[in-house]
């Protein structure tokens, strides 16, 4: 790992947290109807990404006084700091009160399990490129979505509304560590205006 990699990873954390805060304040004015197997739209609590982060959590707190810009690319200390940062992000704290809550939130699709019937599992992430073109965000900003029915038309980085029962369930994958899981999820294309 290099100090450049460490700076990129630190930047990705800052972007993830900033986008979560921004999305909390920039929710669409009008939201689409959600189709739910168990009931109407009101059966789901609309969430923003910042609501998945416990208040006061600061993933960069331990790294502020390190002087990242002065580290050598080949330094063992740089590699150790990079590993510590990844560990901090993968073990990001979760919001316990979300356990077993029916929720709905928008995000981007990172497919995990696909077969001839379509996508069965994917990661829902808060910003375009997360887990694919950029390092994974903190685990409290990644949701493993297990669909009720496979989605044939779902593609990587599609923007969707995902509705389902929220669980606290830290799961590693090739694309990143998710802190939450949505079970029996219903997924719809994201629209910022009602149909």
Q: Would you write up a description of this structure?
A:
The protein has helices at 3-25, 76-90; strands spanning 45-46, 101-115, 118-125, 143-151, 159-171, 178-189. It is of the alpha/beta class and 195 residues long. A hairpin with a 2-residue loop joins strand 2 and strand 3. Helix 1 runs parallel beside helix 2.
Quick tags:
195 residues; alpha/beta; 6 strands; globular; disordered N terminus
Write the layout of secondary structure elements.
Elements lengths: L2 H23 L19 E2 L29 H15 L10 E15 L2 E8 L17 E9 L7 E13 L6 E12 L6
Parallel strand pairs: 1-2, 4-6
Antiparallel strand pairs: 2-3, 2-5, 3-4, 5-6
Helix pairs in contact: 1-2
Decide which structural class fits the backbone. alpha/beta
How many helices does DSSP assign?
2
Q: How would you characterize the largest beta sheet?
A: 5 strands, mixed, barrel
Spans of at least 5 consecutive residues with low confidence = 1-8, 14-40
The helix/strand series, from N terminus to C terminus, equals HEHEEEEE
Oligomer: single chain
How are the strands ordered across the major sheet?
2-3-4-6-5
Cα shape:
globular
How many runs of DSSP E, i.e. beta strands?
6
Indicate the percent of residues in helices. 10-25%
Q: Let me know the average pLDDT.
A: 81
């Amino acid at each position: 790992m290099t100090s450049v990699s460490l700076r990129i990873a630190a930047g990705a954390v800052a972007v993830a947290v900033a986008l979560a805060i921004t999305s909390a304040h920039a929710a669409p004015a009008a939201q689409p109807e959600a189709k739910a197997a168990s009931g109407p739209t009101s059966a789901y609590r609309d969430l923003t990404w910042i609501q998945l982060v416990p208040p006061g959590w600061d993933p960069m707190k331990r790294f502020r006084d390190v002087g990242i810009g002065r580290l050598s690319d080949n330094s063992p200390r740089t590699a150790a700091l990079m590993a510590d940062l990844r560990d901090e992000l993968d073990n990001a704290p979760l919001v316990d009160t979300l356990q077993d809550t029916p929720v709905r939130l928008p995000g981007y699709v990172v497919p995990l399990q696909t077969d001839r019937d379509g996508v069965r599992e994917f990661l829902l992430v808060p910003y375009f490129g997360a887990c694919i073109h950029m390092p994974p965000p903190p685990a409290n900003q990644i949701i493993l979505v297990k669909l009720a029915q496979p989605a044939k038309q779902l593609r990587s980085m599609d923007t969707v509304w995902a509705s389902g029962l929220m669980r606290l369930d830290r799961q590693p994958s090739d694309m990143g560590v998710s802190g939450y899981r949505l079970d029996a999820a219903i997924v719809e294309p994201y629209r910022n205006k009602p149909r």
